[in-house]
## 1
Amino acid sequence: MRDKHLWFGLKYVSSALMLLIAVSCGAEEKKATNKVIKVNVVNVGVDPTSTKAHIEYNGTIKSNVAINSSFQVSGTVLSVPVRIGDFVKKNQLIAQIDPTIYTSQYDQQRAQERLAKENYERINSVFQKGSIAEIRMLEARSQYEQAQAAVKMTYQNVRHAKLYAPMDGYVSEKMMEAGDLAQPGQPVIELVNIKTVKAALPIPDNEINNIAKGDTASVVIPALDNMDISGTVDEISIQSDLGSPVYTAFVKLNNSDNKIKPGMTCTVSFKNTNDGNTNEKQTIIIPSESIAVTEDDRRFVYVVNGNSADRRYVETGKLYDEGIVIKKGLNKGDQLIVSGYHKLTQSTQVEIINDSK
């Protein structure tokens, strides 16, 4: 009888302990469920440092117009009276070669012209009196006209011994100095006009059709304290660069104060890019590390919904240096969780610890 009471006593104690453990585990589970996870967020399509509303390209500033000036005749360079960086006006003397040989030829041709003229006038006078055949007069006149043409030609050689600026602009490069031998067509001075400049952008072949002439772009130039200037697409190449599937687009910029110099690097972003649909819309890019993948290869992110985390399945696009394109699943203004998301499940309570505005 005593053993029977002892058995019932032990059974009661065991049941009580199991109940206590179950209650304790339930409390712990409830406590874990109510745990608040601290997270950092960014506003999709608002924060320019992480979720860009546009695609960026790196480019280089080029002059709008660049002309290589050269002599049309050969000779030894006497002087190049300009320096790199000088501003020159149209028709200003920028270089000169030794004209001696050409002036000598001109003087000789002038002498031949005077002789031919005197001969023609004398023979024509005799012809008018009827004392000479017409053919003699015609030959004399032809020789005079040929002499006139030779004078004009040699005069052009004398004139071309001096090189004048073809436009207003800055001297960007000097290819010759005094003493060099110049040949026809060989560049001597490069002049550039930088009242307007162009940002040249390499564009991959699968993106070139997203850009059209006249599109508005924002150009940031780091060398000028990140100066931000608006421009428009002025030219788009129709043939890729040699050996690579890359095209070039040019964004024209006003440069009335001449601060922007050819060769400066820049970052260009387009305010509107065509995503392939009928309507144009801004492209959403988010940090690629904020995306998680399920066992069945579905991609998702977490956004803040009230005070809890909301799982959003997304469709991704192209990968860029600044992040990955989101085609579907996110909207502009969503608060994307970018830190602490690895601790989250659906409806986990969250607390935002950064200012995403």
Note: The CA atoms of residues 285 and 324 lie 5 Å apart.
## 2
Amino acid sequence: MSSTHIRLRRGCAVAAAAGLFLTPALAGSAYGSAGIQAQIVLAAPTPPTPPTPPTPPSPDGNAFPELTPAVAAQLDAAVQQVLREARVPGVTVGLWAPGKGSYVRNFGVADKATGAPMRTDFHIRIGSETKTFTVTALLELVDQGKIGLDDTIGTYIAGVPNGDRITLRQLAGMRSGLFNYSEDEGFNKALTTDPKQPFTPQQLLDYSFKHPVQFGPGEKWEYSNTNLILLGLVVEKITGRPLHEVIAQDVLKPAGLRRTLFPTGAEFPAPHAQGYTDESPTGEIVEATDWNPSWAWAAGAMISDLQDLRSWARTLATGTLLTPATQAERLKTTSIGIPGAGYGLGIFNVQGWIGHNGSLPGYETLTVYLPQAQATMVILLNTDVLHEGQEPSTLFGEAVTRIVTPDHVYPGHKPTAPKQG
């Protein structure tokens, strides 16, 4: 199993090397992002197969007119190409750009057994996008003067390797050097043997701490879900409240997110699509809809929907819940080894698109905001099965942005794919 695949069983999907690979057939040229205004490009469309009619989104007082028919037709064709080639059951794509228009479409099926279509009002498991909420809760405590980003984790949590040297900033920025618990073979065996079992944060840390540290604090960037488990525990210790309550009251409520939640078990509000994964003992594709996400906890357990993620994309990128100084610290990125891509504090900037993606068994999401165009893109799909080693959410993001923001193509660069094994 390759350690470069940053997914929730092997490490939540983010803008990390594997999560940003493109299939050769769909790869475009690299594009720069500095100071270039995104644009909608009109071109002769390829006649598409009609997509599933979208379920009207909940009114939010910020409706945009639809994109021109020509651009919409281009997007329909591009999304359907990825759907077919990557064998994705279903996907919902949302794009909103002031002055340009909106595009909200459902493609494919939500349930292979019944053929029920995807809908825009579905809840979805958001995987690593949870990290954006956990780190926001942490940064709110920074703004309140209750903690400091350069405090060491050992100040709050005992027994952490290098705990007297690793800072909260390094944990949030994926530069701690701590082993990623979801890469541990014992953890993988336990999860695939009984994916509905609950895990505690301490169990997850135990899987990590039996491994040596990977490098010294701050020496380099390496994605690790262990970092977020520790930050979740810090939030709980400082507030004296469970993490799910802190996020609900201190993040979701002020952000106005009514259909987003941090589950405490396997609960999954209806309606939702069935999720399909090959993260099974045999590698065959199975349903993962009701698997217990407690093993992901502060790193990836949350649930949301299209409209809430649309709103959250802008809140996260513009920092409306934080002071300007703290948001500025959040947006300072470290290169992840891909041109135009960097990781900040629980957030990435890829070719100017700011946000996060997520992948856990059965589902993938991508929620990003492009400040230069005030554009938002949200992509939701009901599988995490890789296509030729590539994350399908990334393939959809590339297909959409290649058409609508050619100067800011996500992810914009196709590095050499790593060897598997």
Note: Residues 18-404 form a domain with the Beta-lactamase fold (CATH 3.40.710.10).
